[in-house]
Structure formats: structure tokens, C-alpha cells
Design goal:
Elements lengths: L1 E2 L6 H9 L5 E5 H4 L2 H13 L3 E5 L5 H12 L6 E4 L36 H4 L8
């Protein structure tokens, strides 16, 4: 059994586990406050002996790269899957990042998340801080 929207912080994760309500927790970057917060929750999932799904609510190549990197940082025995939602979004922001092939995908390599987005596709920034 996977709990998805019912797990939204450490308290609900522990409560769901104590009630025996799940084997898998869906961990979403945007729901937990970013990569660092999600990584902390992932550690709790592993301590509790559960599996996790590393995912995003919806996303581009940039957010998909982030969950792919989180996925490869997991204990493979505790990761059920990583969601690749960038292939459903167009236009692709970086045509060079890996795509799914026979149900498998790897994290992009390179600096940061390994994404080099086409800045013309992103458009003008709303704010520039010097």
C-alpha cells in the first residue's frame, strides 16, 4: 500500500507507519519544501523500513533531474521508483538530458543537476538580483 497525498510531513509519515497503513510513501519535492527537506524525510522512510517513490507533482527537465538525483542517492532496496514527468511536458528545456528507455532512466551528469536549459525557452526572468 502506498500513501501519497496523506504523507505531507514527518508526523504524518510516522503516524501512517504506526497505524500499519503503508509499505511505501510518495515523497514529492514541492510538497516537502525542496530537495534538502525531501532528503531528510527519505532518511526517515528508510529508518522505518519503508520504501519510497521519489516524485514531483508535475515538472520539467529541471525538476525531473532533481528527483532522479534523489533517487540515485537512495538505498536501492528502499526505492520503489522515480517518476519521470519531463517527457510529458513540452517543450523540453534540455534535449540532452537522459530520457526513459525500456522503463529505465539515469540522472543527468554535469554541474549541479546536470541540466543546461535553453534560456530562450525560459523567457525573460521576473527578477534579477545583483
Amino acid at each position: 500500500m502506498k500513501l501519497d497525498e496523506s504523507v505531507y510531513d514527518i508526523k504524518t509519515l510516522i503516524e501512517g507507519n504506526q497505524k500499519g497503513a503503508m509499505d511505501v510513501a510518495a515523497l514529492k519535492i514541492s510538497k516537502f519544501g525542496g530537495i534538502t527537506a525531501l532528503k531528510k524525510l527519505e532518511i526517515y522512510v528508510h529508518i522505518l523500513g519503508l520504501k519510497c517513490v521519489s516524485k514531483i507533482l508535475w515538472g520539467s527537465d529541471i525538476t525531473t533531474a532533481a528527483v532522479l538525483h534523489l533517487g540515485i542517492s537512495c538505498d536501492p532496496n528502499r526505492l520503489l521508483n522515480v517518476c519521470d514527468l519531463s517527457s510529458y511536458v513540452s517543450p523540453r528545456l534540455d534535449a540532452k538530458i537522459p530520457s526513459r528507455n525500456n522503463g529505465k532512466i539515469s540522472a543527468p551528469e554535469g554541474i549541479g543537476l546536470g541540466v543546461d536549459p535553453d534560456l530562450d525557452l525560459l523567457g525573460q526572468p521576473d527578477l534579477i538580483i545583483d
